[in-house]
From TrEMBL:
Source organism phylogeny: Bacteria, Bacillati, Bacillota, Clostridia, Eubacteriales
UniProt function note: Involved in formation and maintenance of cell shape.
InterPro entries in the record: Cell/Rod_1, Cell/Rod_MreC_2, MreC, MreC_beta-barrel_core
Protein name: Cell shape-determining protein MreC
Cellular component GO terms held in the UniProt record: plasma membrane
Residue intervals of the Rod shape-determining protein MreC beta-barrel core domain: 124-271
Coiled coil segments of this chain: 69-116
Biological processes per GO annotation: regulation of cell shape
Pfam families: MreC (PF04085)
UniProt superkingdom: Bacteria
Keyword Magnesium tagged: no
Keywords: Cell shape, Coiled coil
Similarity annotation: Belongs to the MreC family.
Length: 286
């Protein structure tokens, strides 16, 4: 019995080797055609392989899309940062441009009026929170030669006067403050009056104590009269925009719109020395 099993195993081994050799012969690379069995198997598995190929390709495309979206998000974030940086640079350039224009105007004013008075440029660094439009603070003080009652102007016209000074700063009362008083006159007729602020927040002023028989009209220019000694004569103040009679019936009042935009002051000039009080500086429109 054992010998029969041994012959049987040897026979099976020889048969398997023979089948393997036949399979290798019929499936070798470079054959001209497939065996009938291979062709049948490939034909049967072809549609299934196509389905799996589409599924695999779809999955691959999905993965690539997710990766691509992440990459695009990062690129978009970087581009947005670059855009924000460029916008910031443009805003800064515009701010520097406007500041340069304002400083150039101050320099031209100083050079144009230097035969009349000497000036010191100063920056507005604060406003009184209790009187937002009436009092401003400048970055020049005693160490810069600034003293109380010095006039403050802009290239457009009168702004106010110094009312308090510390070593490094000074406070200015604007002409629109109700506590302000400026000796003024009508440029065309030389009729005098007193300019005072209406309310701190209004941005306007009024010329009071003008004789009733005086001819006042909208559009007339108001300048400093030099009376009182605080303000040099002839500095432009503003233009009349309305005329009314005072309640007493003895005087007229003219509402004046200042030439200087006192709501948006950033730089001003402080008149430190007046060389010739009788020499009128150029007025608005000259």
């Amino acid at each position: 019995m054992p010998r029969f099993v041994s012959y049987k195993n040897l026979f099976l081994l020889v048969l398997l080797v023979g089948i393997s050799l036949m399979v290798m012969r019929f499936t070798q690379v470079g054959r001209d055609q497939l065996t009938p069995l291979e062709a049948a198997v490939k034909d049967a598995l072809g549609p299934v392989q196509g389905i799996f190929m589409k599924i695999g390709q779809t999955f691959h495309n999905g993965v690539e899309s997710v990766v691509s979206l992440g990459r695009l998000e990062d690129e978009n974030k970087k581009l947005q940062e670059q855009v924000d940086l460029l916008k910031g640079q443009l805003y800064l350039q515009e701010e520097l441009k406007q500041e340069n224009q304002r400083l150039r105007s101050l320099l031209q004013y100083h050079e144009q009026y230097q035969q009349n008075f000497n000036t010191t440029a100063a920056m507005v660094i604060g406003r009184d929170p209790e009187n937002w439009f009436g009092i401003i603070t400048l970055n020049k003080g005693q160490k810069d030669g600034i003293v109380k009652n010095m006039p403050v102007v802009t290239p457009s016209g009168l702004a106010g006067r110094i009312i308090a000074v510390s070593r490094n700063t000074s406070q200015v009362m604007l002409i629109t403050d109700p506590r302000s008083g400026v000796g003024a006159m009508i440029q065309e007729t030389r009729i005098p009056g007193v300019l005072e602020g209406i309310t701190a927040g209004s941005g306007g002023a009024r010329l009071i104590h003008v004789p009733k028989d005086t001819q006042l009209s909208n559009g007339q220019v108001v300048v400093t009269s030099g009376m009182g000694g605080t303000f040099p004569k002839g500095i432009p103040i503003g233009r009349i925009v309305d005329v009314s009679n005072e309640p007493t019936g003895l005087f007229k009042t003219a509402t004046v719109n200042p030439f200087s935009d006192l709501h948006r002051l950033e730089e001003v000039l402080i008149i430190t020395t007046v060389y010739n009080p009788d020499l009128l500086p150029p007025t608005e429109g000259d």
